[in-house]
Amino acid sequence: MAEDREILREVWDGRVPVCIQLASEDHNTLSAPDPYYLMVPRLSYFPLLMDKVRKHFLRFISPDLHEEEMWLESDGMPLKWHYPVGVLFDLHCGGSSLPWALTAHFSHFPEHDLIRCPSREVVESHFMSSVKEADGLKHRGQIITNMQSKDHKQLWMGLCNDKFDQFWAINCKLMECLPEEGFKFIPFRIHFPCQPSLQRLIKPQTDDGRKVTLEELLQEFLPRGEGDRVVIQGIEVPRDTPLQWMSEHLSHPDNFLHICHIPTQG
Amino acid sequence: MACLTYEEFVTGCRVLLQVSKELGDSWVMCHSASDSSTIYLSKTQCFKADLSTSISELTAEKSESPDEIDKLIEDFTQEPEPPDPSSVSNSTPGYIITYEYHIVYSLSHSVPALYFNAWYASGKLLTLKEVWERVSNQFCEQIADNKWNSLTQTEHPVLGRPFFQLHPCRTAELMSNVCCESEQTPKDVKKYLISWLSMFGPVVGLEVPITYYNK
């Protein structure tokens, strides 16, 4: 684990370039606002990063929209803020044209598609819930339950403040296991551009002690066409990589492996 | 810790469905659009709420058949007359609120989880705050104490869109106090599901009649 630590750092430091413009139906000034350019961390969540963007656009929208929740859209698709930034990028943009062009809206919140996010507490609650789920799969929840709430807080603050050491001081406990056994189940989700995400159970080892690979996971749970892209943390991981290693090194801070399946165009 | 495998959950749902039919209740089984082996149970219930009264006076009109639900909606969804300053109205208009409950399997916690959505007659979803306010007084303390960990809006694991959820992370612990079978006896999945539903359902307005236990 120690020799692969630089991979953890690389994953932590991943950034994507975005360009956010204000929805034309929401701006009510003669001159259009400048778009807002920024680099966003792959591992973070949009609501944690949008304070300055919101302030930038506030003067260009009508006062009755000032209290409204800002939501983002990519090429007509409302962005699910509760997915990590990197997952949304890999699903919707994939680097085909950079920076990733997003539109900020202040009206017509799509409440049937998007969870409401009125405060950072909502993001924290969602994040901690995912961490608990992941530990439920890896360790029957034993490790997260036995942690003190100050440790939970440290995980969250480490993520919010981009503090790798602070985060991993606690997260390494969630990555513990007996080397010969691995986790009970691997926490993963498969995401698609236009259908609900998929979550299933898979063990990191077969009964005879052989390590299960990404290829086997994909074969078991996905009907795949030729040339479909499978992207994790922005890279097409070699399909013979063991799931246990991937879970320890390529998971997001919520301790899930987020796998993006992008079918090739017909 | 009392958990269920997915197979046990499916068996329990089938039994619950059977009991529901016998009692004239309205649970139905639904399948994932992309994978027919993934199932969940669904039930819709309408509540008549007078907006000017407090939570404790909320009354539930339980509908037993789809026709009755339609009539109820018809009766109450007519828009109130625009206020006429020359007339005196005796009562504030009643509003209908529809709750749709789903019993879904939580893969991460190996237990059932209760999801639901609630909306006004206009189709507008209730906010999380409005949903919290409707939690009956006897449960308010538990929810308020641990607000962000008990009842939140989240993504439905099968449908992939926003639903409210009662967090399942403590379900196994709570259920182990109720179901104390030894490892040897086969699990009574019907008893498990009905006990579970009786614990969690009432928090969000879903009552489980005592007749469920007798079947």
From TrEMBL, chain A:
It comes from the Eukaryota. GO terms for biological process: apoptotic process; autophagosome assembly; autophagy of mitochondrion; cellular response to nitrogen starvation; immune system process; negative regulation of programmed cell death; piecemeal microautophagy of the nucleus. Keywords: Acetylation, Apoptosis, Autophagy, Cytoplasm, Immunity, Isopeptide bond, Membrane, Ubl conjugation. Pfam families: ATG5_HBR, ATG5_UblA, ATG5_UblB. Residues 121-176 form the Autophagy protein ATG5 alpha-helical bundle region domain. Residues 11-106 form the Autophagy protein ATG5 UblA domain. Residues 186-260 form the Autophagy protein ATG5 UblB domain. InterPro entries: Atg5, ATG5_HBR, Atg5_HR, ATG5_UblA, Atg5_UblA_dom_sf, ATG5_UblB. GO terms for molecular function: Atg8-family ligase activity. It is a peripheral membrane protein. GO terms for cellular component: Atg12-Atg5-Atg16 complex; autophagosome; mitochondria-associated endoplasmic reticulum membrane contact site; phagophore; phagophore assembly site membrane. It is found in: Cytoplasm; Preautophagosomal structure membrane. Forms a conjugate with ATG12. Part of the minor complex composed of 4 sets of ATG12-ATG5 and ATG16L1 (400 kDa); this complex interacts with ATG3 leading to disruption of ATG7 interaction and promotion of ATG8-like proteins lipidation. Forms an 800-kDa complex composed of ATG12-ATG5 and ATG16L2. The ATG12-ATG5 conjugate interacts with RAB33A; this interaction is bridged by ATG16L1 and promotes ATG12-ATG5-ATG16L1 complex recruitment to phagophores. Interacts with TECPR1; the interaction is direct and does not take place when ATG16L1 is associated with the ATG5-ATG12 conjugate. Conjugated with ATG12. May play an important role in the apoptotic process, possibly within the modified cytoskeleton. Its expression is a relatively late event in the apoptotic process, occurring downstream of caspase activity. Plays a crucial role in IFN-gamma-induced autophagic cell death by interacting with FADD. Involved in autophagic vesicle formation. Belongs to the ATG5 family. This is Autophagy protein 5. It comes from Petrolisthes cinctipes (Flat porcelain crab).
UniProtKB/TrEMBL annotation, chain B:
One of its GO terms (molecular function) is Atg12 conjugating enzyme activity. Keywords: Autophagy, Transferase, Ubl conjugation pathway. The keyword Transferase applies. InterPro entries: Atg3/Atg10. One of its GO terms (cellular component) is cytosol. Belongs to the ATG10 family. This is Ubiquitin-like-conjugating enzyme ATG10.
